[in-house]
């Protein structure tokens, strides 16, 4: 849609900002109101990256807004610093640094904990501003006398004083803010942000250091807040202490939700609605103090019924009107027989870190996991050779999934050791293990459900191509070397090329299962664990998936858990049987098939009962 | 300036504030633990409890009736809020739950502001608790002493509900494993409604009991809400004993720091919270299950 034309959003923003001074006065907007909307919009750009894109709802943005604002205002009023733009940038840096330190604490927890901690932190800043630092911040009086910017160009001096003149400066700042935000959102980091919002567990498992990326989003939001805070002082010629209040954070959250989260422009729209309604309700309708109640009710209704806010609602409407026909087109396309598609060349696994190593690719010794009194796995010795295809079977509750979770380091064993390619990985994090070339596909799908198939695979491939953490904030996603090839290749392997741009939520179950395998595959693992890849599939899908597994097994070691013995035995070379947390037996499919102890384990001694 | 009587009286203040915070936080924490919803309107519940009691006092001149009316009103408000709005948010993401309760909190505050204006309102303490008590080594306002006792009784009642009744058993089980409770054939939605009512009532009760100590303003719940968060983070989400321990710790930190410089009260509180987060991320008495 809009994304296909480069710089379309940038151009539209520029046009909008240029046209605004000619149109808005006729709609009853005073220049000062428009400037305030832009400051809120700029503040919100960063917040939307944090909340809308990364999914971290902070109620403490006032801390950074105030920090940036007061640092800039202090420099300009009391420290005799003359350069307005310089002061704004220093304020922004101060806010970003503060954001980094606060982020280290607040991001120790997620979800509601994170929200509570940010609220508490913001409150601390408010009190610090008022009391211990009042010599610098003016306490409850704030800092009056913040100058407006002027630029000496040699032949003339540009001075942005107030009203529409100052608008030019603020609009330019907002425009630059939009360009930067768009670059960030479209960068690999931006893609990982949305992965964190959708499924932090899987984002970690495919090999991204999500803590680092969350902190990045937090610092970005703090930097935007700091710059916007500085602009507030410039705009009002006075830095008000209420920049630090909880109300500021709350208003930002509400404006973003009203306008539409995850859209970048939501906060601007929200601020427009907010300030317009405030003026309108107060003066035109004479509601006085009740304006905030009306806004509160509007906000609650929007959260209840229009989750995407105003922009989200408009986008839905647009899709409803224009998308119907498009969708029926794609569905009319005949469902080509999947068995017809030619198997693409197998995908290469990651290059071996130390090719000299020739022992077993994975070796676990004495692996034990206890949950209190319950022993899930006890003293398992397990070894898999390079290039082997190993199956693991066992009745329900035999501890197969726990075993896999320990191998991928999702959970730490109570005792025992895991060695991957000669390297002790016991106690490493799941992210690091994935980066080393060991990952798994989950028994219960762990997909990025809000994204398309292609975006899903992109996120997994990025982890392999960029490592677990990298700050290429301004790089285009398409310029990551090898990314397109890897994604296309994986798409072909798991036979989802035709569904590449379909949102995951619209996929059929079998397709989701294949994408689940694709996510693991896109990280190019040398050792791939598959936890019940055939679970819940129709017989036809099973045949299909077994073929897929065979094709990806070339040049790669795989361990597969499944209950479908016929398919599994056809696939693997050796089988390990787990029972009650222990290794019962180890052998070729033929040996296992005929073993009496295995039959006993599965059928629970039914033979004996029948005989009796 | 720092004398023994001064310190002891601040410790008493801390106890009174701590007990109050413990009660409010218990309400917040059992709601969160059972329903999985963090009620950002909890501070508003506290505030409305005070105002509802204030209205009742205007009509009856009886403090006891004011306490009963205030608590019951907030309980009903909580039940209504759960039935009409919160119910539809159980299966929506945490952010949406935070947004909607935050919005409701603002609506409540603004409604009260509309009715009673921003001016502060006074509820006098009941006659028997008026004046000052001589504790032998110092004089202390009688009502503040009484607050400690009244809140302790309320906490005791909450303890009995949580640990000695069938409902409490379900609630505690639900905090540890709500899926399991659901599958045992218990109508969790009715339990949710009752828990929300009780949790809100705890805040409302605290609101009216606290009203004679401070004067009522529509914004009174905001600060309390922030302090409650710190209490819950320190004590551990979903833990009733944790809320009490955290409440007392927070109350003492605020009071004792205020003796030196009130401006640092929040800084110290925050420092304590950070320390807990670093040393025991799940809170002092927290359960690992919920996040």
Detailed description of the structure:
The complex is a heterodimer of chains A (612) and B (291). Chain A is 55% helix and 11% strand. The model of chain A is unreliable at 327-343 and 607-612 (pLDDT under 50). In chain A, strand 2 and strand 3 form a beta hairpin. A 6-stranded mixed beta sheet of chain A has the order 10-11-12-7-13-14, sandwiched between helices. Chain A has 612 residues and is an alpha/beta fold. Chain A has 24 helices and 14 strands. A two-stranded antiparallel ribbon of chain B has the order 1-2. Chain B contains 11 helices and 2 strands. Chain B has a single domain, classed as ABC transporter involved in vitamin B12 uptake, BtuC (Orthogonal Bundle), CATH 1.10.3470. Chain B has 291 residues and is mainly alpha-helical. The chains are: A alpha/beta (612), B mainly alpha (291). The interface between A and B is large, with 41 and 45 residues.
CATH class of chain B: Mainly Alpha
Strand tally of chain B, please? 2
Average pLDDT of chain A, rounded to a whole number, is 86
Q: Roughly how much helix do the residues of chain A carry, as a percent range?
A: 55-70%
Could you describe the largest sheet of chain A, including whether it forms a barrel?
6 strands, mixed
What CATH calls the topology of the largest domain in chain A is ABC transporter involved in vitamin B12 uptake, BtuC
The quaternary state of the protein chains shown equals heterodimer
Strand arrangement, major sheet of chain B: 1-2
Structural class of chain A: alpha/beta
Quickly count the helices of chain A: 24
- CATH architectural name of the largest domain in chain A: Orthogonal Bundle
Q: Structural class given helices, strands, pairing of chain B? A: mainly alpha
Work out the radius of gyration of chain A: 29 Å
CATH class of the largest domain in chain A: Mainly Alpha
Q: Going across the biggest sheet of chain A, name each strand in turn.
A: 10-11-12-7-13-14
